[in-house]
User: Fold this.
Amino acid sequence: MINEKQKSIMSGVVFTALLITLLISFFDAQHSMEVFIDHPEWWPPFWNGLLILDGVLVFGTFAWYAISQNLVFFVFKRVVEACLVLLVIATLTFTLLRVMPGGPFDQEKTLPPEVKANIEAKYNLNAPLLEQYKDYIFGILQGDLGESYKYLGRNVSDIITETLPVSFQLGLYALIISFAIGIPLGIFAASKHNTAWDNSAMFMAVSGVSLPSFLVAPIFIIIFAFWLDILPPAFWDGPSHYILPSFILGIRPAAVIARLTRASVLEVIRSDYIRTAKAKGLPQRVVLYRHVLKNSLIPVLTFSGPLVAGILSGSFIIELIFVVPGMGKHLIQSVTNRDYPLILGLTLLFSALLVFANLIVDLLYSYFDPRIKLS
Amino acid sequence: MKIFHLITIILASLAIVSCSKKKKGDYNLDPKETLRVNITTEPPSLDWNKSTDTTSAQIQDNIMEGLVEYDFSDPDLGLVGAIAKKWSAENDATDWTFELKKNVKWTDGIELTAQHFIDGWQRLLNPLTASEYAYFLYGIKGAREYNQGKIKDFAKVEAKAVDKYTIKVKLVGPQSYFPYLLTHHCTYPIRKEIIEKFGDNWTDPKNIVTNGPFKLKTWDHDKAIVLERNEIYYGEKPKIKNVLAYMIPEMSTAINLFDKGQIDAQLTLPSTELSVLKKREEHLESGILSLYYYGFNVKKKPMDNPLVRKAISLAINRNEVTKMLAGGQIPLTSWVPPGMFGYEAEIGTGFDIEKANKLLDEAGFKDRSKLQTITLGFNTNENHQRIAENVQAQLKKNLGINVELKNEEWKVYLNTLKVDPPHVFRMGWLADYPDPDNFLNLMTSYSDNNHTNWGNKDYDSLIEDAAKELDKGKRKDIYSKAQKILTELDVPVAPVFSSVVHSLVAKRVINFPNNSMNRYQYKRVELK
Assistant:
């Protein structure tokens, strides 16, 4: 079994690794670190190396945790299940796309039949459906997601590798902001239960949930980019550009997290062990942060799985308004364009992220609350 | 735990210390020599044989040149030579000869020859290229068969480089407007060996070879494209050194950046903010050769009766529609739009409620309750919705007809038009080349773009006759007759208006290209 000391070493390692990557990505080292200005070619190996190291550290820690908790079989089972889920999703998406009216090459100016025939032959769209399906699945197994119909000559995997990191970066900042605001706000509201403080905190949370980002974004742009003139209104070119989009993307999840945390803290605070902690004379702060917080994070964790997958794969509106070259735009536009390979590729990626995030959340359950047994 | 916090703090401070402030959003270009425009989206492809959209064309038109180009100073939009020195037609516009300028160089220093054009046309027509615009050259003898795969040998297609500087073309039939097709990017020359060497990556900045006033310097996907002056361009060199083309999809964001002085030109404006933006001194507007119309499905009752169609066309007050839109659109009853040779404002049904009601009575619908509810289809879009609602109200008020609106997502709508068009449907057309043929051909009985199910042999033969006619006056008469059949006699369509584009262009920009073909060539632009 794993002891408390090992646990804190693990979280320390993961935390440090993530923080370093985050800081470097935030300050866009490629263009700002002296050494890389002189030797731009050093950047990709350095950055990729760092990411791989990070990945190894994080996964290694999880693997260590899984092994020490006898969860290897559990993880293995979940990964096999995930592969099956992905296969079902690929099949369903493939079928739905073919059923959906309107094809990828339908346009205002109708194409002559011979031109259309040439295009269909090129993309193998004239083959029987079963054969197209077989080719597609074999393609995926070999790591080939196909060529986009809209962006000629560009592979779906190229589009993903170019846009996902940007969406990931934006999503990560937004996530950090949402947790950093949401959890303390929730705890604060709960500790001042039924006071004006509680009410105003929850009023903020409700506003955060109900105000759509397409409304909040222009207001923030007017205030910060025009009236105060301290932040740029658009683009994704460095730290000052990251602030507005990340913050606006983070507001809504922050609000949800605040409400969840508050409700959960209120429940935990009434339990016997908290009464014991108070009775033995621990200060309020220690009770809250050491005993209440950890035990009330389970609902927040449950919410975090889908949240992480959703937010990391890009936000259509925020990316559009702030001209962020991320993946969110492609998620929507590929459907309007009926760009079959791109739709399929992005759907699979999103599903994989979702399944993976949920797996991590399940592992974290048992980490935060040892009473939960995974098997 | 504490030791890790310490490490974190040390590393974090290291990361921060090693950073210095440095912007890259402007690609280190000097704004005084750089025109910064918004091309809205990522160009789907810079391969000029394959791309079909206006965004890609905006870049291609600046890095490449074809045989001929528009003379935008000519109100009738005539042509001037680009790479071609002169050209001539023989045999009733069936045989064409183009003579090329000498000493025109590609960006890698190789001289441009007639064979490069033929290579481009061969690639365009090759079935394996699967180019959507292959049909542009179907007029050339053997071209269609080559594209269909019936002819395997391109030597049998009648487009030949007879020597280094001469191209000879034989067409299937007379086509007086043939040179206009050659203004289009799909007919530009190519360097076969470059494409063979780099495959799909040949349009990457490090591989691409071009012949235009600018060359492609950077292509930052989903962000921006940078063009740089081509120092070995054969013509007068551009005054500006760079063009920085941002991809900003959201119009309000682009206007924000324009207000901040970060972009010089925004080429489309949100219709809801037009009334305010039109008052600004940076505002520019230009009529474009386009058509917004309602088509009637003549196979569906009661639209099978020409009197009903004519009555509907007569009962639509186009002025009311354009006034409601308030975007400077030009009300239109004729099929050929203003700004193009062949435009006659008085052609078509005017607005006449009395006559419209009389025609509907004659058609046997004196009792309006006998007339079923008519479905008006359009693709989901705020503006189309506003127009359709306006027309719906007009038809109710003026004729007592009940109209129900039906909107569908764009691709679904296109499918509906193909399979089973509603009684009345919205459609539009944007000129490929500024000749009435491009508009009138649309409604021939054999056109794939004619969704009305209407066909008229007299109309078809008029369009074919006009294509053979080289005399401008006679051609105009023929087109006039054809338009009358279309909009006054059989009325399978009711034109509504011709569009106008609005843009914001910074005061420091001189000679910004603003024309009816939406072609943005920046070689003559100067910056104050």
Observations:
- The longest helix of chain B spans residues 382-399.
- Residues 290-498 of chain B form a domain with the Dipeptide-binding Protein; domain 3 fold (CATH 3.10.105.10).
- Chain B touches chain A through 70 residues (CB under 8 Å).
